[in-house]
Each structure stands twice: as C-alpha cells, then as structure tokens.
Write a structure and sequence with these properties.
Number of helices: 10
Distance between the termini: 37 Å
Strand content: 25-35%
CATH architecture of the largest domain: 3-Layer(aba) Sandwich
Strand order of the largest sheet: 1-4-3-2-5-6
Helix content: 25-40%
CATH topology of the largest domain: Rossmann fold
Number of domains: 2
Shape: elongated
Largest sheet: 6 strands, parallel
Structural class: alpha/beta
Radius of gyration: 22 Å
CATH class of the largest domain: Alpha Beta
Length: about 300
Amino acid sequence: MVVTHGSVLPVRGARALTIGNFDGVHLGHQAMLERVVEQARALGVESCALTFEPHPREFFAPDAAPARLSRLREKLELIAAAGIEHVHVARFDAHLASLAPERFVEQVLVRGLRAAWLLVGCDFRYGARRAGDFAALEGAARAHGFALEAMPEVKLGGERISSSAVREALLAADFRRAERLLGRPYALSGRVAHGAKLGRKLGFATANLMLPRRAPLAGIYVVEACGADAADGARWLPGVASVGRRPTVNEVAVPLLEVHLFDFAEELYGRHLRVRFIERLRDEAKYPDLNTLRAAIARDVAQAKEFFAKHG
C-alpha cells in the first residue's frame, strides 16, 4: 500500500475513493473499505482512502476530542489489510478547515485524488463549518462527473457499529463487546522506550510504551503482548499492564502504557510491541511508599496469573 502525507497533490490515474477518520478501523469501516476495493476492481482503477491527521475534532477542540482508539501506524496497517492500495493522510490544519465545500471537492477530490467513484456515509459532512452534506455532494458529483454511493449503516445485533460504541465498551471494560464491534481483540501498540527502570528495582520489569494521545481506557489490566513487527512473529505472551500517569512516583502528564510480561527476560527496547487487553483488574491508585506499591503490583500479577490458569 502506498501512503502519502500532507497537501493533496495531483495523482496519476482515476481512483475509487472513500473518506473518513477510520479510528479503530472497526467492522463498519472494514465494510466501507471492502466495498471500495470491490468497486475499484470492477472499474479497473486504484482503490484509495482519504483520512486526516490530526482528527478534525482534535484540531478544533483538543481538550474535548474523543480518545484515540488507534495510532496512525495501527490505522494504516488495518487499512492495508483490507486491500486498499493508496491512503492519503491529509494534514487537518487551518487551511483545510477553511475550504468551502465546493473548493474541497474541486481541490482535494477532483484535481488532487481524481475520484472517479466516491463512497461516503449518508451523514457525511465536509468543508468549512461542515456546510457540505450528502445532497450537496450529489450535486458536485453530477457537476464533476464522478459516481457517488452512500454507505448504509453497518449493525451488529441491532447495534450500530461506530467508534463511539467501541469507546463505550472499552470504558466499561466490556472487551467482548469491543471485540465484536472491531472484529478482533482490542490492542494498543507502540515502540518500547527507556524509562527510569523503577519496575526492575521493584522486581517487576516493565516495557514502557508512550501514548501520544489519551487512550480510551485506564487502570490495571490482564493482557497479552507480542511483537508488532512482522519479523517478531505472533507469539502472544501473558502479562499485566497499567495505563495511567504513575501517581506514586514520577507522575507523567500523558498516560503511559507499562507492561510486565511473565517469565520473560529478552531485550525489548526500541521494538514495537502490540498489547491486547483481556480483563480489567482495578483502577490506578496512589500509594504512600514503594513497598506498598510493590505489594499492589504483586497482587496484580497473582490475579493475572490466576486468570490465565483458569482460562488457559
């Protein structure tokens, strides 16, 4: 899959295109992407997805924006897995936000990405102040000569599949519901960074993954982890993890994902790790001293090992 970033520059060849934030790439997103791939093959053109970085709501109201379900790297990997041939990651900035709907169509969709066929949701809005709607896009399609299709809602057991529904499930630690909506267990991934080595001093070495934005969950969890790079394979290892700010020592401004893997002593620094969440144990807490913290971690480890012993 080809990935391009920044301003939309004219490309060669027509495209079957879809547009969205695709946060989490849940089953609804996957259905959209599969429809684009199908239509691209029928038309003999390249399949393409247009997405944005940052999320538009992060641009307009960063403090009120929803938690990210996936990092950009994860999102691109999942879009590639759906068979999309080209993703353009447009930088959502003041210029893009100020484009009138007709200018967005002309500059981005027609002259830039050369859309021959476009798939969006019925509630799709675009352009400055979200002034463009599906009816306006229908008129633009007729004027510019591209085909337009509306994606129907994708439901599971009567529930509309959405990123918001996935966030609700994760906040409630309902990982089975989240897995049904996503089509896979929920996971976070990132590059293992050096830390203060406090976990090692406490007897519970951790792999630390920086989370550039607020995660959709917080607390202490039973997890499994494996290398996120293809070369690392898919050997899932049991462990326990914390998503939080480490209030007892060296409190951080942005939440950190810390993973302790059982009976594991390999070097992980610099490697990408994927961590999938299985069961919630408790909230993060602030302890009066390191001995109390050590005892709490020991209880978490014991509970997690008991969980794996029961569930194989």
